[in-house]
From TrEMBL:
Taxonomic superkingdom: Eukaryota
UniProt-listed GO biological process terms: arginyl-tRNA aminoacylation; tRNA C3-cytosine methylation
Family annotation (Gene3D superfamilies): HUPs, Isoleucyl-tRNA Synthetase, Domain 1
Protein name: DALD3 protein
Every DALR anticodon binding domain range: 256-396
Lineage per the UniProt record: Eukaryota, Metazoa, Chordata, Craniata, Vertebrata
């Protein structure tokens, strides 16, 4: 959320490394035609007029192609939530190009759903668009993005802009930066720190593709948790030297991934033992004896995490339906904090309890009940990580 406003413009490589899927227009030969269509729409709009320099005033900025009366449009349309200082906007070629790119990105999102391309009159008769437009923008650029939002509403003949909302992010500050740091340098710094932390914990790492993938995934997880564990409206302060990027720290994304991998290893070990004839296969749930679960940590996992998880998802992942005002919130910190606390309580339980016991029949009931419980915990890990677009690791 916080990285995207800066990254979307100039660093597709970092977006790829962070596994961020960001809508993009096709560009190329289609873009000039889209810009020309917007210029024509500007010339026809009742809210626009030609930009002429008045005698005795300064020269108009280069590239200005017209002006629109945003304040009048907002008042006439009854729109709420926009900055009251919005007034007359001088429209430039750059603005039209930005709008053309946004339009193409929306059309690409809609191309698989013809219903969403219908005019709003048809949608009002019972068919609705599946596409909501969310402007993810830094607080410093909120005013300019509202200008683009309104200009788009005025010029977009397809009326795809009816569901525009704004998700405004607070600033990201760095403690005592020796020099300005960009997204590329930030990613590479965290990746190097993750590698060094892993070497300290596991010894010298093999330089093969598997380890590279693990380090990359851990780095992405660490950065996502670093950015998303704080409410998006609040400021984040990064300490790039004394970092929370660690395999040991209990507040990091790496710690969450580590515990997810511990569960994968547990079930791999159990499955191998079953194939070797050491244990019988896990019976159906209906045949399990859950009264064998007597540890306090087992019931803590059930009542604090398994049962409330659907409510956590509903709080965090569901954007509000269209309503008055343009701002929305996305409570990503809810999922991050849930996963961190789950990891801490699961780790405490796992370090204390021996799940896979000796292969004696009188111990199977307890072992199977624990495996079923931890299988549900594993599913919660996977589902919660999926909301952050993070793949679970099978080993570290």
């Amino acid at each position: 959320v916080r990285l995207v406003p800066a990254l979307a413009e100039g660093s597709p490589e970092v977006l790829r490394q962070l596994r961020v899927e960001w809508p993009a227009g096709s560009g190329g030969s289609a873009l000039p035609g889209a810009v020309s269509a917007l210029k024509a729409a500007l010339g026809r709009s009742p809210w626009a007029s030609a930009c002429e320099r008045e005698p005795g005033t300064a020269a108009l900025p280069e590239g200005v192609v017209g002006k629109v009366r945003l304040k009048s449009f907002v008042e006439q349309q009854g729109l709420v939530g926009y900055d009251p200082n919005l007034d007359v906007l001088l429209v430039t070629e750059g603005m039209l190009r930005s709008l053309a790119e946004l339009q193409q990105a929306v059309l690409q999102c809609l191309v698989s759903d013809p219903v969403a391309l219908l005019p709003l009159t048809s949608q009002a008769e019972g068919q609705s668009s599946c596409c909501s437009i969310v402007h993810v923008v830094s607080c410093e650029e909120e005013f300019q993005q509202q200008q683009l939002d309104l200009l788009w509403r005025i010029l977009d003949l397809g009326a795809h802009t009816a569901l525009q909302k704004h998700l405004v992010c607070g600033p990201v500050k760095v403690i005592n930066p020796s020099s300005p740091i960009g997204a590329d340098q930030y990613f590479q710094l965290r990746k190097r720190q993750m590698y060094e932390a892993s070497v300290m914990k596991y010894g010298e790492l093999a330089q093969d593709e598997a380890w590279t993938e693990v380090i990359d995934t851990l780095t992405v997880a660490a950065i996502r948790f670093e950015m998303l564990s704080t409410a998006h409206r609040s400021q984040i302060t990064l300490d790039l030297e004394n970092s929370s990027i660690s395999t040991k720290g209990t507040k990091s994304g790496a710690f969450v991934m580590y515990n997810c991998a511990r569960l994968a290893t547990l079930f791999d070990t159990f499955q191998q033992a079953v194939e070797q004839g050491k244990y019988p296969p896990l019976p159906p749930v209906s045949e399990l004896n859950f009264s064998c679960l007597r540890e306090e940590g087992e019931w803590l996992l059930l009542f604090n995490y398994l049962l409330p998880f659907p409510e956590v998802l509903q709080q965090a992942a569901q954007l509000p339906p269209p309503s008055k005002g343009i701002r929305i919130t996305a409570n990503t910190e809810t999922v991050c904090k849930f996963l961190i606390q789950l990891s801490m309580d699961f780790s405490s339980y796992y370090n204390r309890v021996h799940v896979l016991g000796e292969p004696f029949p009188h111990l199977y009931d307890q072992m199977f009940a624990r495996l079923q419980l931890l299988g549900a915990v594993r599913d919660v890990f996977h589902s919660a990580l999926a909301t952050l677009h993070l793949p679970p690791l099978s080993q570290i």
